[in-house]
Amino acid sequence: MKNTMQAAVVEQFGKPLVIKEIPLPSPGPGQILVKTEACGVCHTDLHAARGDWPVKPALPFVPGHEGIGVVVGIGAGVTEVNMGDRVGVPWLYSACGHCEHCLAAWETVCAEAEFGGYTKNGGFAEYILADPRYVAHIPAGLSATSAAPIICAGVTSYKGIKECKAQPGEWLAVSGIGGLGHLAVQYGKAMGLRVCAIDIDDDKLEHARLLGAEAVINARVGDPVARLREITGGGAHGVLITAPSLEAFHQGVAMTRKRGTCVLVGLPPGEFPTPLFDVVANCITIRGSFVGTRKDMAEALAFAAAGKVKADIELQPLASINHVFERLEHGDVPSRVVLTFV
Ligand code: NAD
Ligand code: ZN
Ligand code: ZN
């Protein structure tokens, strides 16, 4: 094996990634080395590379948290995976395993959690160092490229829908039909919900219809809140906001039915005003949701392995990453770009 690998590196926030050879890591005790086959490009990678959020990654770093590959190296003491296993290296890279949140199976909010492609180097590279206790186990029959979007966009959508507590037959509004949203429409449908898709791009809405959305709304046309309330007879029981736009958050709360839940998963920097009287008087729940636990991950992958959910992917080489970021920023990626490695 050579001792360097190609990677796309963020050297400065807001600047193009630099494609270069960096040292090939070797797995220490309790670590594994994964040879990357595919890695999805999430809007979070763009936030990371721009330094959008209050807690910034240390520079330089390699983004990417939808990396799928094969285990090619195992450090001392590893028992959870075997050489040759196909695994995914997700956003939740590792957690402490013993704090109050980890003990409650809420490892996603562990204060000692590390994040793939953020606090640890991620999948925009030929190899990824991973913690075998937290990797996703890719079911047989699911290709690396199809699995990639599931390990962030898929699990985040799936968990967010569970958190909105809507029951079969009830309405789910999904705001933002990109990487996360096009999977949320499919998960919602597979979970027995009636889905209304909301975006600002008619092509994305058309796509949502093909994926099973019963109604679609362009958020930039007319009064989208009134329209949704009319379609659903008083608001959606569950609302999932994936759009990286503060305007969508404001609208999403107003689209929530009395006693319904509005789940926030999109992460544009900033804040949005909350209409207190409406939220209080209508007993609305507003809650955040952050990726998913290892159990959520296994469930989200099982939907994909059973063919109930399928990511729409566009394959690109690692070298195209800066162009892909530009397109993502302008809403020009139809669903999900997946980088492939030979
Ligand atoms: P994406 O760029 O693929 O999709 C975003 C979609 O939102 C696009 O279709 C765009 O047209 C649409 N949109 C933009 N403005 C809108 C508006 N005002 N109303 C309705 N739709 C609008 O992005 P993605 O990869 O799906 O990620 C979406 C967001 O979710 C990002 O902010 C990302 O960081 C965040 N995210 C959060 C988690 C989590 O755990 N909470 C996990 C993954 C991603
Ligand atoms: Zn992501
Ligand atoms: Zn913990």
TrEMBL record:
Protein name according to UniProt: alcohol dehydrogenase
The family assignment reads: Belongs to the zinc-containing alcohol dehydrogenase family.
Tell me its EC number(s), please: 1.1.1.1
Pfam families named among the record's database cross-references? ADH_N, ADH_zinc_N
Cell cycle is among the record's keywords? no
Domain Enoyl reductase (ER), first and last residues per copy: 14-339
Would the keyword Metal-binding be found if you checked this record's keyword annotation?
A: yes
Taxonomy of origin reads: Bacteria, Pseudomonadati, Pseudomonadota, Betaproteobacteria, Burkholderiales
Q: Which Gene3D superfamilies match?
A: Medium-chain alcohol dehydrogenases, catalytic domain (3.90.180.10), NAD(P)-binding Rossmann-like Domain (3.40.50.720)
Give the required cofactors.
Zn(2+)
List the PROSITE patterns hit by this protein, alphabetically. ADH_ZINC (PS00059)
SMART domains, per database record: PKS_ER
Ordered alphabetically, the record's keywords are: Metal-binding, Oxidoreductase, Zinc
